[in-house]
Design brief:
Radius of gyration: 25 Å
Largest sheet: 8 strands, parallel
Number of strands: 26
Distance between the termini: 63 Å
Number of helices: 20
Number of domains: 3
CATH topology of the largest domain: TIM Barrel
Strand order of the largest sheet: 5-4-3-2-1-8-7-6
Strand content: 15-25%
Length: 674
């Protein structure tokens, strides 16, 4: 067993795979068809017919090993054979989710094997189910494991043995490279990230031994809290597509309902970045009412259903699959989440899906080839900040949100929102997904918001970025620690030459205070960073804007610049609910490339915009979450003919480049650019 664990963790899977889902394919909509004993032939047939009649050409089926076990050491596939025959009959493509046997009360499935016995049983199940269903013409691909990752990491024999092997090969140093003691250990967090990658790679490798023709997909979940467990870029070699679960009830607890569309957009951008050159789609979207499950009880409105789908389309997603078409009958989650009512009839949410699916089908070539217009602006987060919060933050809800686990992600999302509400296509990506290899970064911007832990290797990478012409905007307690949880401020600030100054101290403030950036007042809370120029450093062309104390620095470095505000202005915007000052500050710091991108003519609170290019055409997707009717004007769009409305719900064109949207309105427009 120990040898197997060592191999699992240290040897990356290496194989080539066929990729049938392509980035240029037409967009699709689908739903989970929940298969369980007791269902009739007529019910199953009716569900797949309903999918076809409402424009849903894809489904997901959870392949329950417990419903295949024949009790004699073999498998009875008849329950699922019936579902696949129905899918074949109606031309529905199936993503089959491996779901190894688990406890009856385990609705999500286990994420790690308990021991070698369970692991070997999973291997036998993979072989059996792959060999049986690979010949079905309905099979589109496999989902490796439902929603991988788990917090806290379970204390299983498998995990303990794997961790022992990993720790032996990754010892904790006694001292940092420059001689300071290492007193904090974040290796458990890094182990879990590596463990998730290796285990998923092992599943993919087992599948490929029996099926090398179909897609391999996976759906990370709850990404705003689980991001520190995931190294999505490391999953690309064994996947053919990236996915994710984005349930408002389960995963958007840091947002109010008005902001669920923003949360979906940020979630989608994180997955798009993780996918790299792979196609991606949203594997799970909330389809119906949740009663006792989920963190917040809600039922999506038809407007929200349409908004979520258009957000996926606006971030290059190939489609979305709803959880679920029909509800399960027994146990936890029974009678919940469905798109159909208790009599199997489509609800208004299905009608909303059908409308979007129709628009996608009518413009399949245009939308299938669409790529996001790159504004050059990216909000970048560091998973090490999440690791640090797991170790440092007090248990429970501290009175200061900045001291709660998740503050670094909330800060990054706040900056993402402030940029999005200017109409800009802001990226949202992990630092290790950002390409620091070019020599020229002219026109590009990286925003680092309250990322409390930044590894030393990024000193040279960010230095190269700025000296090569990039704009770096930093706020909050960013770089307060390095990867050893050593405080960087007391040991010679690692970015002092790049940033042009240092912080003398951070002072806690009990209420909202204002930071001055020129004449702009930025609400901040709770940490107030005081800047100073160390006497031994030549400030060069630094410009410190001063109000009572030094609060914002603008420093030219090489061909680029660094804008640094070491106070929590992102959390200040979140605390006050007023993102306009933060948006003005970020927008005012951007280079010409971003300013000349398609955008709103001014700040628009609670209005979302995404801009794509398909050939010579420009596609804009706009959503109004403000609660009032709004007319917005787009800047930097050149039209050679009248624009075409691709999709409209409670919205219309009110001028060549003006859009009028009622509350919850959606408008997708194609501009024919010269």
């Amino acid at each position: 067993m120990r040898y197997f664990i060592l191999a699992l963790l240290l040897v990356a899977p290496a194989f080539s795979v066929a990729q049938s889902l392509d980035r240029d394919d037409a967009l699709f909509v689908g739903a989970q068809v929940f298969i369980e004993p007791g269902q009739t032939d007529a019910q199953v047939d009716g569900w797949f017919r309903t999918l076809r009649e409402n424009g849903m050409g894809v489904c997901r089926i959870r392949m329950f090993e417990s419903y295949m076990d024949d009790g004699r050491g073999g498998y009875d596939f008849s329950l699922f054979d019936r579902a696949f025959r129905a899918a074949e009959k109606y031309g529905i493509r199936v993503y089959a989710t491996l779901f190894p046997e688990t406890d009856r009360t385990d609705i999500g499935g286990w994420k790690y094997p308990y021991d070698s016995l369970q692991l070997n049983g999973f291997a036998r199940f993979i072989e059996a189910v792959a060999e049986h269903f690979r010949a079905s013409p309905a099979l589109q691909g496999w989902v490796l494991l439902n929603e991988p990752g788990q917090s806290p990491l379970p204390d299983y024999p498998f995990i303990r043995m794997a961790m022992d092997d990993w720790m032996e090969d990754n010892p904790l140093p006694d001292f940092t490279p420059d001689g300071y003691p290492v007193l904090a250990d974040m290796r458990k967090e890094r182990f879990q990230m590596d463990m998730n990658t290796r285990f998923l790679g092992w599943i993919a490798d087992r599948l490929r031994q029996y099926d090398d023709a179909h897609d391999i997909h996976v759906n990370p979940h709850g990404i705003f809290s689980s991001y520190s467990q995931y190294n999505l870029a490391a999953w690309r070699p064994f996947l053919t597509s990236m996915g994710g679960s984005a349930h408002a009830s389960w995963h958007f607890g840091d947002f109010d309902r008005q902001q669920y569309a923003l949360a979906m957009l940020a979630n989608a951008e994180m997955l798009r970045s993780g996918a790299g050159d792979l196609p991606w789609f949203m594997t799970e979207l909330q389809g119906g009412n949740n009663v006792y499950s989920g963190g917040v009880a809600m039922c999506p409105t038809p407007d929200e259903i349409m908004q979520w789908l258009w957000i996926v389309a606006g971030t290059e997603g190939k489609g979305g699959i709803f959880w679920m078409l029909n509800s399960r009958s027994s146990g936890l989650e029974s009678g919940e989440w469905a798109l159909l009512d208790f009599r199997g009839r489509p609800t208004p949410r299905v009608d909303a899906i059908r409308k979007v699916a129709g628009a996608w089908a009518a413009h399949k070539n245009l939308l299938g080839r669409a790529r996001l217009e790159d504004s050059g602006v990216d909000v970048v987060y560091f998973r090490e900040s999440g690791w640090a919060e797991n170790l440092l933050c007090p248990e429970g809800d501290d009175r200061y949100e900045a001291r709660q686990t998740g503050a670094s992600m909330k800060s990054a999302v706040s900056c993402f929102r402030a940029l999005t509400e200017r109409g800009l296509n802001a990226g949202f990506r992990s630092a290790d997904e950002y390409d620091f290899s070019p020599d020229d970064f002219s026109g590009r911007t990286v925003v680092i918001s309250n990322q409390i832990c930044i590894p030393w290797k990024y000193r040279s990478r960010l230095g190269k970025f700025v000296s090569g012409g990039g704009t770096l905007i930093v706020e909050g307690l960013s770089a307060f620690y390095d990867e050893y949880l050593r405080n960087t401020m007391t040991t010679g600030f690692m970015f002092r030459n790049l940033f042009g100054c240092s912080v003398s101290e951070f002072r806690i403030r009990d209420s909202i205070f204002n930071v001055m950036a020129d004449s702009l007042k930025l609400p901040a809370f709770p940490w107030h960073g005081i800047l100073e120029s160390p006497p031994e450093m030549d400030r060069g062309t630094s410009d410190l804007t001063v109000s009572a104390d030094r609060e914002v620095s603008v420093h030219d470095y090489g061909r680029g610049k660094v804008v640094w505000c070491p106070s929590n202005i992102a959390l200040g915007a979140r605390e006050t609910g007023d993102y306009a000052p933060l948006s003005d500050f970020l927008y005012g710091s951007l280079p010409d490339r971003a300013v000349s991108s398609v955008r709103f003519s001014g700040y628009q609170d609670n209005i979302l915009l995404r801009t794509l290019r398909s050939g010579d055409d420009i596609i804009v997707i706009c959503i109004n979450k403000s609660g009032t009717e709004r007319t917005v004007t787009l800047d930097n769009i050149a039209c050679t003919s009248s624009p075409d409305v691709i999709f409209s719900s409670k919205a219309s064109l009110s001028g060549t480049t003006s859009l009028t949207l009622a509350p919850e309105g959606i408008l997708a427009v194609c501009f024919h650019a010269g």
